[in-house]
């Protein structure tokens, strides 16, 4: 270690602690807000210590939601978010594994053409093709359905690249041996390639789950029926109540529930998360 | 690019790429082409009739004060978010790289905001800045600043910058920390022996050596600020007050989806496409360079 200067060390810790405080402070305030009644939050000054309304708030948002704001119960939105996040994650991983396998292990006409076609999706996020994509989804009858929430998002250039990159590092000898033993391409995929890709799949799973759970614009477009609202886009209904005071205790409880799944995934699988983040550069 | 050994030629590889290609064609390439085509048309709101007008939509956009204003705001917004998120990320990463004890705890506690959805991050900060009962806004009131992001455009902009920055610091922190840890310790040690203090070492050794990371992060942060912050704007300010936070992505959505001005929205989509494509190309040229040495 270079530094023997005590002050440098102390000040480093101090700055880090300040940073931590700034990062965690909003969360603290959120948690406090989940433990008070709505009226208690509307009388300034805001309480800084927890109250005893946590379970009431939880029961309120999970079971009933805020019907005046046109938002369905949070339990339903959580379920929808989970379906969407898992659908997107699994869908992306499956189709990317398959196409990367084809591109690396087969020589066939238009191979590179397909590769570049997949690459192009990187440059076309939902945000730049809002209306036509909505039009396609509408024409296919995908509005207000779980298929509509997931299917249009499961093409993935980053996942395909990652798997392609990884497959290229698998020694050729494995394939030679497998062919000598008469293994079919799919057999080789199941018995060799897939088990070897386990860590990569897990790392990608973490990143893609967060990506899927946090989708906002797409669910906003394809759902008009509140039964299909996801929690991340549904909270907007509670925030934008015209001519009324936002019901902060319910909003904060909803926000907390909406961030728990992805945050828990990051904290529990931190190593895989960092690996996935660095490899996909997402 | 390709394995030495292959499977025999068959229909199988086509079957394997089929799902990905179908989704790409149906939900990505076809809509993008449609956006290109529609940007050259003027259509009535019901889609009953249209007229081919070449680049009229684009010309109209660049003569439209509200679009230029949205462009200006987007640039201010993304510059503010990129700069503050990167500066703070770098600052924390440098500190975490210096301390030995507890650095993994700091890391754990600093990374998770990445997982919070932008809209939820926006909700958190909207609560703290709520004009009547927010904890920060009442503090500001006590020192004489009358905060109200529902009426004041500047306040609204500051609010979304803070929310967007808060979420992005962790990403920059992780990449900067990885970059710093890849720099050989011997370099800083040598400089320390020569009598360079911590500040001098940072600016003359660490910061220049980090430039590939900095460059990469700059592109990522700009893309983030341009596109992924839609949730914050839509959920918290709804583009207001009086369009002061109506960034480009929000405007495409609003003009196309709410105001049903299809030609203009399509033209705006095309402009955004050009921006994403240039940023992506920029980023890939950088990655190529990184691979070379």
Give the overall form of chain B: globular
Quaternary structure annotation: heterodimer
**How many β strands of chain A by DSSP?**
0
Q: What are the low-pLDDT stretches of chain A, counting only 5+ consecutive residues below 50?
A: none
Features:
heterodimer, A: 282 residues, mainly alpha, 15 helices, 0% strand, globular, B: 293 residues, two-stranded antiparallel sheet, 13 helices, 2 strands
Question: How are the secondary structure elements laid out?
Answer:
The complex is a heterodimer of chains A (282) and B (293).
Chain A: H1 6-33, H2 38-42, H3 54-64, H4 74-105, H5 111-120, H6 130-139, H7 146-150, H8 157-169, H9 172-180, H10 185-196, H11 198-213, H12 217-222, H13 231-239, H14 248-268, H15 270-280
Chain B: H1 12-38, E1 41-43, E2 50-52, H2 56-63, H3 65-98, H4 103-111, H5 118-128, H6 135-142, H7 153-181, H8 185-193, H9 198-209, H10 211-228, H11 230-237, H12 248-258, H13 262-292
Helix pairs in contact in B: 1-13, 2-13, 3-7, 3-10, 5-7, 5-11, 7-10, 7-11, 8-9, 10-13, 12-13
Walk me through what this model shows.
The complex is a heterodimer of chains A (282) and B (293). Helices cover 70% and strands 0% of the residues of chain A. Chain A is mostly helical and 282 residues long. The model of chain A has no long low-confidence stretch (mean pLDDT 85). Chain B is mainly α and 293 residues long. The chains are: A mainly alpha (282), B mainly alpha (293). Chains A and B meet through helix 1, helix 4, helix 5, helix 6 and helix 9 of A and helix 1, helix 3, helix 4, helix 5 and helix 7 of B.
